[in-house]
Amino acid sequence: MDLRNAPAHTIRDAIRDGSIEARAVVESVLDAIARDESDLHCYLHLAGRDRLLEEADRVDEARRRGDPLPLLAGIPCALKDNIVVKGMPATCGSKMLERFHPPYTATAARRLLDAGALITGKTNMDEFAMGSSTENSAFGATRNPWGRDRVPGGSSGGSAAAVAAGEALFALGSDTGGSIRQPAAFCGVAGLKPTYGAVSRRGLVAFASSFDQIGPIGRSVRDVAMVFDAIAGVDPRDSTSATREGGGTEETLDAGVAGLRVGVAEEFFREGLDAEVARAVRRGIEALRVAGAAVVDISLSSSRFAIPAYYIAADAEASANLARFDGVRYGLRRGASGSLGGMYRATRNDGFGAEVKRRILIGTFALSSGYREAWYERAMKVRSLVAADYAAAFEICDIIAGPATPTTAFRLGEKQNDPLAMYLSDVYTISANLAGLPALVVPCGSDRSGLPVAIQLTGRAFDEATLLGAGAAVERAGLFSGGPRADGGEHHG
Amino acid sequence: MAESPFDIVIGLEVHARLLTESKIFCPCANRFGEEPNSLVCPVCLGMPGVLPVLNHRAVDLAVRAALALDGRIRPVSVFARKNYFYPDLPKGYQISQFDRPFCEGGAVPLPDGSKIELIRIHLEEDAGKLLHPEGDDGHSLVDLNRCGDPLIEIVTAPVITSPEEAYLFLVGLKEILLYAGVSDCNMEEGSLRCDANLSLRPRGETKLGTKTELKNLNSFSAVRAALRWEATRQERTLLDGKKVNHETLLWNAETKEASPMRTKEEAHDYRYFPEPDLPPLVIDPSRIDSIRATLPELPGPKRERFMKEYGVRRYDAEVLTSSAELADYYEKVAARFPDRALAAAFLTGTFLRYLSEDDTAPGLAPVGPGALARLLSLVRDETISLSAAKKVFDVLWKEGGEPAEVVDRLALRQISDEGEVEKLVVSVIDENAPQVEQFLGGKEKVFGFLVGAAMKKSGGRANPSVLGEALRAALEKRRGGRRA
Ligand SMILES: [Zn+2]
Fold first, then answer.
1. Which residues 241-270 on chain B approach chain A with CB closer than 8 angstroms?
2. Domain extent for B352
3. Residue A246 has pLDDT above 80, yes or no
4. Ligand 1 center–CA A342 separation, angstroms
């Protein structure tokens, strides 16, 4: 078996039937890390090599004894650094939490551990998940394995790049406005933002609580389904988690798309969309039609207000969520010898990067007395209009297909000084967060310089099964192939 | 003092800590007086990634309080974040309720039959506490034990017209909350806290004047004293032709003066918005009904019933119903003993004095209602006198025992036997010949002296009315003998 390119679910099956040892799997991932990590910088924290190998040996011993193996036994995976795991740091890509060690483990991480997965480390991200390139990490950018002068996308750039480079077999990211899907698209891997409430947020360091969702990034749609099934489901310690059992999507993955109505909104193919991306996405839609789906026209006209509404509503929540980083109890503390106000100012001034400060200021302003109605409340109205648009669309279709990103991966530094251009890279992903719907990106081609292009599929709330089934159908069409070149770095053109 | 040309307008905000086992959004214990920061977890410490989970016992108690205060329960209410920075507030926001509180309206009845209207009651979490170590002005310490304790905030309309009325409101409110069993209302432990605001307006004017806010009011009498002080200060200010500043004042219970808060409190913009981590709070009618069904009789109705059912005076009814426990005790005595007035008098006098001396509660009193009823029956059937009953009560309280048995042991049984009393009278007349002569000579007053002498001779046990009658009969007999 080609461990470098095999999807996680085939490796899972091989470990379980004994055709491969967990140790060999872990060694393969450790080799990839040894080879590429110093250049790619996917990780902010790596688990100890010896400990991972020990854990792999335990899986192999258990299998030899004939003990039943849990579902993900011996599969090495990476977690975005805003998902807390006791025993590992959780910096959220911020100086504010540089030396912070969380006292508990996130529910999603706990479920992976209970399923036998091995956590290789914590991945790089835009500070507090605010960004679309992972360049906002306080600890340096991550490079895209497909072109090392390119960003991996963000904010879950470390997770997507790690999966693409074989530095983990799958990863968890978090998606507030596209932070799983945009980097997955840029890195040529599959990524799912589940329905809001499908996966517990407990232990996900909050950016915008009513938007955030943890979700899987994998080498294949089946990998994503497998991980989603493991982490989804009600959590009594997250009051916004849906009161339903999650999972079961892997079983129905091959059901096919015959009769499935695929909605396409033409407004998503107009100005701002790169022509090569548009072509690849249309090929993805065509693949669904060929596989038996019916393509129908829909309109999502409110989505043109999605970006401003999102940056107001999400930042409003962020301004409150990030208030706890004040230097009093944990994390960075500066200016403690002066006044209380002085300590707050010095701590937050030194601890937060420019983008985080910008978001806190936007959010604070949007909630301020006298401005709240014009900004926050209007954004919330747009939010319900976007949701209503989707509800109307899902009267006539079962999933919605369109582009995931306006372009393929852009160059490092290209948009770093232009926040508006950066925000626009989320134009196609944000609406699903505003409406709380599940959305999946699947690679469906490459541009002429070989950078991956992805199609985005959006589904009805809690209908991840249909969504993943359609994603698997796109994948079977074989529009996208191969892995990133091991030497990378030749997409300078 | 001349009558003031101003009307006083007072509004109160009262925070009451609910009697739950655990905090409102995490499993930590809701308890006072533990080692600082021993009742904390990642949730109430505001660790990154934690989420609140609503304690529904807190909702039940809050609804109970609202029903006892005659408020309207909103079927769907919304938690909101109140944003501000302070070291006792780990998340940088307090989870409270803003534009959609769980209860609107409500009222607290006053003894004169009037009512103080409430605007709203809402649920929220408590903040922690800052400690300032003595002799060290360099730093403060934070204790987060009470951070996340469940509170209800009760807000009155600006309708209270005097400091005295504010005081009566608080007494009435506390009684109701205690009756309903929702809070222990212990002000020393911070279970009940009150902030007040006060403004003056020219008599007859309807527009409200500029108000000031008063904080650090640590007892009901401090509320009253601070409001009196502030009303006087504002009146002087206005009479001097000056303006009242909108500001927050801190009451100093020792100097009995208020002063503006040292840290300049800027006009806070709390930037409220709906708490995204909690779904709207839905309280369905069946839940309200089942809570209402367990609500006890409240002090007002109980007072009226005591007057009607037991024939006790208003004052006694007020004292007896000032706590549910005392009222229960009284009803248990009254069920076993027909002289309700005697029972009321004994409870409001002797019994309450013993309770307060021992700082105990009626339910924990060493003399139970059954024993007390048996003791009072001995008074009623004239086995012992009332003063003897008090001696017996003292023994029962301190040592326990059965009333009749203690009466015998202390030989307190009243002498009512006419033959025995007559013997006593004869010997008193013999031993006090000069006084008897004076009496027979017309000095009626001496009769009292002779009764006292006879009583003393009996060791206080003679039945006073039997003794009085026998003595007068014997003396009159003498007088008659003389005339004859
Ligand atoms: Zn706690």
1. 269
2. 297-409
3. no
4. 29
Give the pLDDT confidence score for residue A482 in this predicted structure: 65
| Secondary structure of residue A173 in the 3-state scheme | strand
User: Residues B202, B159: one domain?
Assistant: yes
Residues of chain B positioned with their CB less than 8 A from the CB of A322: 92
Q: How many Cβ pairs within 8 Å bridge chains A and B?
A: 101
What's the complex ipTM? 0.96
Percent of chain B with pLDDT over 90: 75
Q: Kindly report the CATH number assigned to the domain that includes residue B475.
A: 1.10.10.410
Q: Which residues of A are catalytic?
A: 80, 155, 179
Question: pLDDT tens digit string along A260-288?
Answer: 999 999 989 988 899 999 999 999 999 99
Same domain, B345 and B318: yes
**Does A294 map to a domain?**
no
CB contact A84 to B (< 8 Å): yes
Q: Domain check: are A137 and A226 in the same one?
A: yes
Q: How near does any CA of chain B get to the CA of A310, in Å?
A: 15
Domain count, chain B: 3
**Phi, psi of A2, rounded to the nearest 5 degrees:** -85, 95
Q: What is the 3-state secondary structure (H, E, C) of chain B?
A: CCCCCEEEEEEEEEEEECCCCECCCCCCECCCCCCCCCCCCCCCCCCCCCCCCCCHHHHHHHHHHHHHCCCEECCEECEEEEECCCCCCCCCEEEEECCCCCEECCEEECCCCCEEEEEEEEEEECCCEEECCCCCCCCCEEECCCCCCEEEEEEECCCECCHHHHHHHHHHHHHHHHHHCCCCCCCCCCCEEEEEEEEEEECCCCCCCCCEEEEEECCHHHHHHHHHHHHHHHHHHHHCCCCCCCCEEEEECCCCEEEECCCCCCCCCCCCEECCCCCCEECCHHHHHHHHHCCCCCHHHHHHHHHHHHCCCHHHHHHHCCCHHHHHHHHHHHHHCCCHHHHHHHHHHHHHHHHHHHCCCHHHCCCCHHHHHHHHHHHHCCCCCHHHHHHHHHHHHHHCCCHHHHHHHCCCCCECCHHHHHHHHHHHHHHCHHHHHHHHCCCCCHHHHHHHHHHHHCCCCECHHHHHHHHHHHHHHHHHHHHC
- Residue A410 maps to which CATH number? 3.90.1300.10
Residues B271 and B381 in one domain: no
Chain B residue numbers touching A368 (CB-CB < 8 A):
269, 271
- Residue A330 belongs to domain spanning: 304-380
Residue B83 to chain A, least CA–CA distance (Å): 7
pTM of the model as a whole: 0.90
